[in-house]
Amino acid sequence: MRLTLVGAGAMGEALLTGWLGAGHAPADLAVVEPVRERADAIQARHGVRAVDLAEAARSDVVVLAVKPHQIAGVLGELAGGLAGAAPLIVSIAAGTPVAQLEAALPEGTAVVRVMPNTPALVGQGMAGIVPGTAASADQVDTVRGLMDAVGRSVVIAEKQIDALTALSGSGPAYLFYIADAMIEGGVHQGLTRAEATELVVQTFVGSAALLATGTPAAALREQVTSPAGTTAAALRELDERGVRAAFLAAVEACAERGREMSR
Ligand SMILES: NC(=O)C1=CN([C@@H]2O[C@H](COP(=O)(O)OP(=O)(O)OC[C@H]3O[C@@H](n4cnc5c(N)ncnc54)[C@H](O)[C@@H]3O)[C@@H](O)[C@H]2O)C=CC1
Ligand SMILES: O=C(O)[C@@H]1CCC=N1
Ligand 2 pocket, 170 CB below 6 A? Predict the structure, then answer.
């Protein structure tokens, strides 16, 4: 399968790295990236070819990983090159509905909308997949295969994608934000930054592994919280400072921004 990634930025490169790590051959992957230094760096790091959109149109799968406001321009240019070629078009752009993608492409073009996340870079991604109206079951399976190669995926209805974005799409940033703040807290307590970083990173890795056993998050939190102990003192601060409410509001704001971008 020949796949061309259009837009080799943060998320595009994370997917590319994940696919190469999962065994996709560099010869089967290409990128369209107009920023010359970026394209050169991608070629040097990953050994994949840089091509133009006309050549991308002759791939089996085209993954659009440009910013949402750049999608319309890319689709317009790509549509012109699609005569005689019918690649599967995958878009990872936030807030860009299937109907908008399909309207910009020749009728009957197979489109799949995906919301991935950056842990795909290390094979631990989480992706939501929304099949377009002309995408066959085999084409949806192809996209699932691509996303499962770099983590896990779920097929969802488009009405759920803003909620999914607010958890798994943007979620890594919330966790990095917490990690960064915890490291700062450790430095305030007299640890070196390196010591605090090692402690926090392994605590995230271990806690994620525990969560992945399926034990509910609330039960895991209770197991750490000894009566009248240290954790209870910390969690009381978080509650008093409205951190739980802040997370509810953050998830809501993220989903609402996705809905706003879709309009
Ligand atoms: N960063 C993330 O964690 C996630 C991003 N996304 C989506 O992925 C898309 C890309 O986001 P980022 O990677 O964060 O942005 P980015 O700005 O890092 O990457 C965009 C890339 O597209 C390139 N580009 C611009 N115009 C182009 C064109 N006409 N043809 C080809 N390439 C072009 C840019 O030079 C840049 O390298 C967005 O639509 C975003 O909503 C989705 C899920 C997660
Ligand atoms: O911040 C954004 O808009 C993109 C979409 C999900 C994660 N990053």
Answer: yes
Q: What is the pLDDT of residue 85?
A: 86
Class of 171-262 in CATH: mainly alpha
Ligand 1 pocket, residue 67 CB under 6 Å? yes
Q: Whose CA is nearest to atom 7 of ligand 2?
A: 170
**ipTM for the whole complex:** 0.99
pLDDT recorded at residue 13: 97
> Would you call 186 helix, strand, or coil by DSSP?
helix
- Give domain limits for the chain: 3-158, 171-262
- Strand ranges, E, within the chain: 3-6, 29-32, 49-50, 61-64, 88-91, 111-115, 125-131, 151-155
Between the CA of 77 and the centroid of ligand 2 the distance, in Å, is: 24
CA of 96 to the centre of ligand 1 (A): 13
Mutate to test the pocket of ligand 2, among 162, 165, 259, 262 (most ligand atoms within 8 A of CB): 165
Answer whether residue 43 shows pLDDT above 90.
yes
Is the domain spanning 3-158 CATH 1.10.1740.10? The answer is no
pLDDT at 68 over 90: yes
